[in-house]
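With this grant's support, we have settled on a layout for protein records. A representative record follows, to show the layout.
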Amino acid sequence: MSDIRTKLWRVDARNDSSLREQLLEASARLRDGGLVAFPTETVYGVGADARSAAAVERIFVAKGRPSDNPLIVHVATIAAAEALASEVGPVERRLMETFWPGPLTIVLPARPGAVSPRVTAGLDTVAVRLPSHPIARELIALSDVPVAAPSANRSGRPSPTRAEHVREDLNGRIDGIVDGGAADVGLESTVVLVDRSSGAVRVLRPGGVSAEALAAAGFVVASVDAGDAEAPDAAAPRSPGVKYKHYAPKGRLTVVEGAGDAVRAYIQARLDEDAAAGSRAAVLAFAPAPGAAPAYRGAAKLVALAETPGDAATAAHRLYAALRDCDAAGVERLYAEAVDPSGLGLAFMNRLRKAAGNRIVTV
């Protein structure tokens, strides 16, 4: 596909008539079997009609995505989600009512024929979510089809949180991009599976809804897969993002865990070595104190993940853009400060470890 076929729709949520006109055109592309990238509250996704095997196959080709990695289906209403499932249990329905619309994906038993087997990777389950981003919901509603939509990036690359990230990876490979500004959360959705016998919730992939938030809402959380290694059922993963290396920058990323002073001393020593060797290095760091700026000597690029120590929400919002900025700066080595893996910090560390290929140093 040539570059000229990737159309850009710039939409403005403040202009109702312009927004609807642009989204009507984009939704028509989806109905006709096209691939359209669009913003969600988590990251940008690249969508196709989930019922069409030919359209869904184009996603795998455009992304270079492994065929045994299932796709999440995005819907505009709870009723549309129920239509994709052979059964929705009481715990699953309560999850929908509590966290939808929002960054929670629920794995449900698939209704035969509701979506293409390419979406489910041949499994008997389908992963479904109802995004909260108004542009995503309007686009899906206007298309009137369930939309299979993984992140709109080349497989293995950092996920896109802005339309320009999508163009970097998929220009000429998809039909259009809906530019709705920067994503809010910055990390993909949480994926859960309900144990039908116990009613407990298993977190297959941490994301925008933390295990603590699930528990606070009254759900029993049976297990949380932090994603540091392949999932136990990785030969046939029920959730995307649990089997293959993801989110990787071009440079060699190392995550450094430990007490703040020790972490900073270790990274500074590596920066000094890199400078002596003529290597361009970057640091992804938290402020050592509220309002302070991270301080490292000799870094070709210094990225403040957050201005407050341990602020995982801000760090999550900035992570993927930071990795892509380091690529643009020609960085060869990256060092990232770890954060406490609680709340949203678990999802942040999950993505950071995968971006590093589990290259972790504890000091």
About this structure: Confidence is low (pLDDT under 50) at residues 228-235. The longest strand covers residues 44-49.
